[in-house]
């Protein structure tokens, strides 16, 4: 039999087969099992379901006490006594048992027996004899009746629950206790089963338990709508249940649109406990248990849309009222309280680098929405968003330096890890002119992602929008104009590229930026290559290649100009092309420049093929493709694969190279036959 306090029927448990089996196995021998997880993940439902099945199968009773709604620390033991039907204990004895010790902070570790106060000689101090007698009688009564104790929702009384559990198990080691909480009790005998949100899908096209749970509430429905809703709700059983209750006033497509829209998920509905009537209430209950520092950190983390490491959290959260040194500890406490998800533990060096990876955390959407509301109420949203964008600017600058220096794969990994944040920093509307400049700085620093890794269209969209918001004539804007023109050239928007490069040239002259003029010459060399105008391409690229760059971190630099010069010369002058390719590698900034290496190899392949050596061209072209795959760029990779196919046919069939080499270019030529003049020459001529 079960002694449930609310006597209510339990909902079906969906998607918890592994956790169900684990708890069932632990009930056979573990004295204390704690189910942990975030708010609304279904801890209490699973615990009660497993205990009901266990009691039906093996006999015995279940004694449950809920710790959250209205129960004080003084009343915990009395509630257990009443739930167990143990009426023989004297009232004064029960009160003595319930008298609590001094409570630690909400996230302090509960002291175990080894940490108990000591008397003379280092032995534990004598316990309260009256209290121990009462606890022993309660524990013995439960063992005689084969009763399993369920301490449900321990969070508000976590230290009191842990102390009582320790004393009960000391009196009767055979007693079985199950607890549910957002964090573990912290006892040595405890076995923890952590519940994660329900998976939405099991691979492509296979609905997961989150969809199954929603479908049980909605009936037959379009699978794509169910998946969209569950993905927006991140598989939270409470959120799915609350969302399903909205179907009496809206259609399923309307529910999907509302769930997927930006904004807080403050749905409400009937529930056994007040904190489960809405997502806001569920997180408000946990928020009330946090320390002031943890509350501020929680609220400020809400501006981060993706998973993050402690460095980024510190940039956003640290201020005069939250010391930087306190942020890491707050992250750990929030993770232990199931507010944050830990998506990666701190790890050793990965196989391909010597960098030790820091841990990464994630604030789920409902907790993020709640924190954002608190942040807005505190009047801190503006400053937190500004710190966020400044931190993203620093991340982009770090990635730019890594690209040209320590390693391009590290730069790519850094950008991929922080992609959610960089995208948000680029797309969120700036709050003022300085904020707009920070966003533009991010877009400019990520030039290598747009140009070298194949995200040209995305980069152009960001730059076009941010250039409209940043009208001041600054060196940063001049760089942005050049980058937008260079990307437009690579996207074959030749007229747009020429217009942007013309504006960039004017700005570079005004700021006496010789590096900028060299980059503009490089971009015009690209335009000439796309027009198949070899003389103009050679003139522009020679001028760019012979420049000595003052800023080695931004843009392609002289080495890439030499490499493109080798490509331009390959069909017409093998010796000069070979010398240019050799020079490109000699003036490189880093041995790990795979972008340059793949371009140089491509130039060598063109040279070998143009002069009747297809076997050698094939070998070199394969190396170019392998190098380029390390950093991306679908356009280059697809083009080189086409070249490989043509070379393989030539080698297999013994064919000579065709008169036209049009089919071996990785780019698509378009535009007029205009021949741009080298820009250094224009500057010297006073144009």
UniProtKB/TrEMBL annotation:
Residues 13-174 form the Orc1-like AAA ATPase domain. It comes from the Bacteria. Coiled coil: none annotated. The lineage of its organism: Bacteria, Bacillati, Actinomycetota, Actinomycetes, Kitasatosporales. This is LuxR family transcriptional regulator. Residues 95-131 are annotated as: Disordered.
């Amino acid at each position: 039999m079960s002694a449930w306090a609310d006597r209510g029927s339990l909902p079906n448990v969906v998607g918890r087969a592994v956790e169900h089996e684990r708890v069932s196995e632990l009930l056979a021998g573990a004295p204390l099992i704690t189910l942990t997880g975030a708010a609304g993940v279904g801890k209490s439902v699973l615990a009660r379901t497993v205990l009901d099945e266990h009691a039906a199968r093996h006999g015995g009773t279940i004694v449950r006490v809920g710790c959250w709604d209205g129960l004080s620390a003084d009343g915990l033991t009395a509630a257990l006594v009443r739930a167990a039907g143990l009426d023989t204990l004297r009232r004064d004895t029960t009160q003595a048992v319930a008298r609590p010790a001094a409570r630690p902070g909400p996230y302090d570790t509960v002291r175990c027996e080894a940490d108990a106060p000591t008397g003379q000689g280092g032995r534990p101090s004598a316990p309260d004899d009256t209290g121990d007698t009462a606890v022993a009688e309660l524990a013995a009564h439960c063992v005689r009746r084969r009763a399993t104790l369920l301490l449900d929702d321990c969070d508000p009384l976590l230290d009191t629950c842990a102390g009582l559990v320790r004393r009960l198990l000391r009196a009767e080691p055979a007693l079985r206790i199950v607890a549910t909480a957002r964090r573990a009790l912290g006892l040595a005998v405890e076995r923890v089963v952590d519940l994660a949100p329900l998976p939405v899908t099991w691979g492509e096209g296979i609905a997961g338990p989150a969809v199954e749970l929603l479908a049980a509430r909605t009936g037959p429905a379009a699978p794509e709508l169910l998946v969209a809703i569950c993905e927006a709700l991140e598989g939270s059983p409470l959120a799915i249940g609350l969302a399903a209750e909205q179907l009496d006033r809206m259609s399923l497509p309307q529910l999907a649109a509302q769930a997927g829209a930006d904004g807080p998920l403050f749905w409400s509905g009937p529930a056994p406990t007040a904190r489960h009537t809405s997502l806001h209430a569920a997180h408000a209950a946990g928020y009330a248990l946090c320390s002031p520092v943890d509350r501020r950190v929680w609220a400020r983390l809400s501006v981060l849309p993706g998973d993050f490491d402690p460095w980024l959290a510190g940039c956003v959260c640290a201020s005069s009222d939250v010391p930087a040194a306190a942020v890491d500890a707050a992250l750990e406490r929030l993770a232990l309280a199931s507010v944050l998800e830990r998506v990666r533990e701190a790890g050793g060096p990965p196989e391909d680098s010597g960098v030790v990876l820091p841990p990464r955390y994630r604030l789920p959407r409902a907790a993020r929405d709640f924190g954002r509301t608190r942040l807005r109420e505190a009047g801190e949203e503006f400053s937190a968003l500004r710190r966020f964008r400044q931190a993203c600017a620093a991340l982009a600058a770090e990635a730019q330096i890594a690209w040209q220096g320590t390693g391009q794969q590290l730069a790519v990994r850094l950008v991929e890890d922080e992609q959610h944040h960089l995208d948000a920093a680029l797309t969120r509307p700036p709050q003022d002119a300085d904020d707009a400049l920070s966003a533009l700085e991010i877009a400019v620093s990520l030039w290598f992602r747009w140009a070298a890794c194949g995200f040209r269209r995305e980069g152009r969209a960001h730059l076009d929008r941010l250039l409209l918001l940043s009208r001041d004539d600054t060196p940063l804007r001049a760089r942005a104009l050049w980058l937008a023109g260079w990307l437009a050239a690579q996207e074959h928007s030749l007229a747009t590229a020429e217009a942007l490069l013309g504006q960039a040239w004017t700005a570079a002259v005004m700021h006496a930026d010789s590096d900028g003029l060299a980059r503009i010459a490089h971009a015009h060399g690209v335009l000439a290559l796309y027009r198949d105008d070899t003389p103009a391409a050679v003139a522009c690229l020679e001028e760019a290649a012979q420049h000595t760059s003052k800023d080695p971190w931004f843009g392609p630099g002289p080495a890439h100009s030499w490499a493109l010069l080798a490509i331009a010369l390959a069909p017409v002058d093998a010796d000069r092309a070979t010398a240019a390719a050799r020079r490109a590698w000699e003036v490189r900034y880093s041995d790990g420049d795979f972008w340059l290496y793949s371009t140089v190899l491509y130039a060598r392949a063109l040279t070998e093929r143009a002069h009747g050596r297809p076997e050698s061209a094939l070998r070199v072209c394969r190396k170019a493709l392998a190098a380029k795959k390390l950093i991306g760029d679908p356009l280059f990779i697809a083009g080189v694969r086409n070249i490989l196919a043509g070379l393989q046919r030539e080698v297999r069939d013994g064919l000579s190279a065709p008169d036209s080499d049009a089919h071996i270019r990785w780019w698509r030529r378009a535009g007029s036959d205009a021949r741009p003049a080298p820009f250094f020459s224009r500057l010297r001529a006073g144009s």
